[in-house]
Each structure stands twice: as structure tokens, then as C-alpha cells.
Amino acid sequence: MTATEADRDSNTGSLASAADATTEPSKPLPKGVVLGKDGKPCRSCSSKSAFSSWAAQANASLKKGTPPTTRPADDCPPDVEALGRGTWALLHSIAATYPEKPSPNQKDDLRGFMRLFSKLYPCWVCAEDFQSYMQREQVRVDGRSDFGNWLCEAHNEVNRKLGKKEFDCSKWEERWRTGWKDGRCD
């Protein structure tokens, strides 16, 4: 793909998004880049470093002589790691505020939310994996402790797949609801 002046953003002068570019067929994708179902690199499924490597590779012929930006990119779409951190924070916070004795409607609402969440999650690979987990391990909604422990187990399943340390599920309420006993959250 070649760049034209029409590809440049009128406000910044930058080239069109790297996600719209295609890599040369002879160049393999950088390690960690996950392709979306459309065959293009998936920003939500790849780490920022992997996606940035691909974008640099894709734009190499488009941006000759343009120095890379050095400012932090806090206003960019989240990568798979930022998305995961934010998602787990939200889900564990929902568990922490879920009633100890939910009504039948609250149980149905939580089941429905988790079902839809697993279908709408931006990283399709992650979404399909979570759907599979939910088929094997049905979401437990009988109370705060029940859901919180189920969610911690689901999170640990992901941690194992990513080679990360597992969390001690006996401490999930301390981490997400009451704060650590040593007072550092007070």
C-alpha cells in the first residue's frame, strides 16, 4: 500500500491508521500479534508492544524520515493487557458489590450480564475462550461469595494460560471488597 496526501490526517499530518495498512506478504507478523476475524491485526487481542511493532512494520514505507512519537499514549485504544486489567477490575468490583442473598431477578440479571459480556468482549480470542470456560464451569450466582469465588477461579484459569501467578482465592474479598487487613487501602 502506498501513501498519498489523501491518506494524511488534515489536523495532524499523520498517515492513516496502521490498522488500515497491509504488511508486505514477505514480512511475518511480529510475535504476539493476533489477527482478527477480518484477517487484520486485532488491537484488542494483541499487546501494545506487539501491535506497535506491527504498525511500525506496516508504516515503514509510509513514514520515511518521520521521527517516532515519544509521549505516552494514554489516549489510544486499549491493548489486550490494558483491556484485561480494566475488565478484571470491573468484574471483581461487581462481585464485591453483589448481594449476599440475591433475589431471583438479580441472579438472572447476573447470568444474563455474564453471557452477554462473554459475547461482546472486544478481544474475540479472549471472548471465545471465556465462553468455553463458562460452558465448562457454569457461572455461580447464589451470592457474593459464590460469584466472587467463581470469578476468581475464572481469573486464575486465564492467569495459568498466560503464565502468570495465580491469586489466592481465599483473599478475593480482601483484595476487591474490604481492603487489605494491613490497612494500606484505608
From TrEMBL:
One of its GO terms (cellular component) is mitochondrial intermembrane space. It comes from Colletotrichum karsti. Keywords: Disulfide bond, FAD, Flavoprotein, Mitochondrion, Oxidoreductase. GO terms for molecular function: flavin adenine dinucleotide binding; flavin-dependent sulfhydryl oxidase activity. Its EC number is 1.8.3.2. SUPFAM superfamilies: FAD-dependent thiol oxidase (SSF69000). Its cofactor is FAD. It comes from the Eukaryota. It catalyses: 2 R'C(R)SH + O2 = R'C(R)S-S(R)CR' + H2O2. Residues 1-47 are annotated as: Disordered. This is Sulfhydryl oxidase. It is an enzyme of class 1 (oxidoreductase).
